[in-house]
Request: fold
Amino acid sequence: MEGTDVKVAIVEGDGIGHEVIPPTRDLLGILRPDFEYIPVDVGYGKWERTGQAMSDDDFAILASADVILFGAITTPPAPDYQSVIVRIRKELDLYANIRPVRGTGVDIIVVRENTEGLYSGIEKIEADTACTVRCITRKGSERISRYACKLAAQRRDITIGHKANVLKSDVFFRDICIAEARKVNIPVRECYIDALCLDILQHPEKYDIIVTTNMFGDILSDVAAYLVGGLGLLPSGNVGERHALFEPVHGSAPDIAGRNFANPVAAMRSAALLLSHIGDQKSAGLIDQAIENTFSKGIRTRDLGGTAGTDAFAEHVREELVKLTGKL
Reply:
């Protein structure tokens, strides 16, 4: 895709998405002014204003984009509200959720199946019963394990996170993952997900690629954020055969929204993943370097023990990027 006209849909979403996405969009504009950037308004705020969190026209714009930079969405626990991000992941078939966790002594990638399991939206609420169906398919298990194997081929090994001692669907998932890894001679091991959440904190150096199901991957990657400083630092990619969406792992954080407290690093690193995905490794590296240069000067947001607000931190990163590129 690199070198072509690239359409990037920009979704701020809700809460701190309005604070971390605009400066991230600015970094992309410095590096790639040739891209077409298309703002798309979706989320809980739009639902409050219009009664619709995402219209069919909104979705059509997202589907027509080459890549999507996504902020954060508030999803209320309301029976008549459909999760925007779950719908996008399912309808664009963004089956692989890639969550790198990198820091001093830590280099882990959590590969999370992204379209089925407990987040597949198969639910019902009756008078005295609420039911959410956890459906694991052969197709979904095979392709996520193959994606993990593709990453592991350039690295070290795979760990399968599961709860096969309790859940028959996890026996199914685990066996498929093991079979796919053996086909391509990737070293593979397995671990119960609850034990894995502890062991990854105690011995992060043991882990390389971790593949797991939808909800387990969501929880595990949040746990792993502790290793590198918190959710404000973690990016993610949602990747399918024809579409890709990149977003910070953190949520909309309504408790700090509008207070200039949010850490924009996760959003910025998500933009770096976006650039890497389309083949522009150089620009991706420049964003990462600009962030590291800012940290090296002792500039940090409050969640990392610093004093810089969102705007000030983002401006420092922008200045570092301008220095690295020589662009104004």
The first helix runs from residue 17 to 31.
